[in-house]
Amino acid sequence: MTDFTLHTVETAPEGSRPSLEESQAAFGFVPGLHATMAESPQLLAGYKALHEAFTNTSFNADELTVVWQTINVEHACHYCVPGHTGIAHSMKVDGAITDALRNETPLPTPRLEALRTFTLAMLRQRGNVSDEQVETFLAAGYTRQNVFEVILGLAQKVMSNYTNHIAKTPVDAVFSKFTWQKADAVAAE
Q: What global pTM score does this model have?
């Protein structure tokens, strides 16, 4: 088994140190994802840039959460599902939305469900969605801009989910109360 380092500001490569210092200042700790990504200053910088860009899209907090958690759950990311559950709480996202995403049950509104359906189609079909799938998404009240914003969210989450799978990043203590396991994995035990 390959072990990956959870870097601190002191142990990180020089190029990652300023970014970890920013994380420490922003969160009061260095999130495990950032500590792991610090092995590659370019990965950490790229991830943070995509995160900032995605949070500045036209999506509101509920919609950001739907895109993030849809991808996290589909990828069965043991780290990001709890992390984004905590983030959703801090963003004042309705718990019914968070629970539905974590449990893969219907979302409270058809519009949010359309966002989840489109996000899953983009993910599962690797961007090769049909004109009908795009039109259904647009008919739910989303825009062409939102189509591309989903792609941005996918890019961000691929970086974090894949990092967490490879490195087996431990869930941060602050998010441990939101520990999660994919329903089909639980059923198989």
A: 0.94
